[in-house]
Amino acid sequence: MTESILQLNTRAHLDAVDITDLVTEALAGSGKGVALINTPHTTVGLVLGPGDDAMLRDYIQLAKRWPAGYGPFEHFDENNPNSEAHLLSSFAGTSALLHHSEDGPSLGKYQRVIFLEFDGPRTRRVVVRLLGGDQ
């Protein structure tokens, strides 16, 4: 098993960062297998999707607008001002699995690994592990 821990410094309260190149670097030379990408935080998300600048801005716009129409949230009333961030993280998810070959992660033409910050700016960790396969 190959494992790397990436450290990210998000820039804003809501942020979207394409981490595909960092993940690819972390897995370089590790062989074939399944890559598990995981973040141990409850106010972030990891998604596979387009990573162009316009789409990164769209992720942020969605994060701003989506939960706003559904509050107030009970979690907020229990002295948790980041309840919206916890909900967004729950829906986005905090992990992704990718097939990994000697050529790198197997992604579609427009697929990228996107890190979503819902409660920043903060320093965050992303764990990248290659499971099974050729080592």
Written account of the structure:
With 135 residues, the protein is of the alpha+beta class. It has one domain (2-99): Sandwich (Jelly Rolls). The chain is 26% helix and 36% strand. The chain contains 4 helices and 8 strands, in the order ββαββαααββββ. A 5-stranded antiparallel β-sheet has the order 1-8-3-5-6, covered by helices on one side. The protein has a 3-stranded antiparallel β-sheet with strand order 2-7-4, with helices on both faces. It is elongated. It starts with a strand and ends with a strand. The mean pLDDT is 92.
Please give a handful of descriptors for the protein shown.
single chain; 135 residues; Jelly Rolls; 5-stranded antiparallel beta sheet; 8 strands
Task: Please render the helix and strand layout as text.
Blueprint: E1 2-9, E2 15-18, H1 20-27, E3 33-38, E4 44-49, H2 53-65, H3 74-77, H4 83-92, E5 95-101, E6 104-105, E7 112-117, E8 123-131
Antiparallel strand pairs: 1-8, 2-7, 3-5, 3-8, 4-7, 5-6
Report how far the terminal alpha carbons are from each other. 7 Å
Rounded Rg: 16 Å
What is the count of DSSP helices, taking H or I runs of 4+ residues?
A: 4
Largest sheet: 5 strands, antiparallel
Number of strands: 8
CATH topology: Jelly Rolls
Shape: elongated
Q: Helix and strand succession?
A: EEHEEHHHEEEE
User: What is the CATH architecture descriptor?
Assistant: Sandwich
CATH superfamily grouping: YjbQ-like
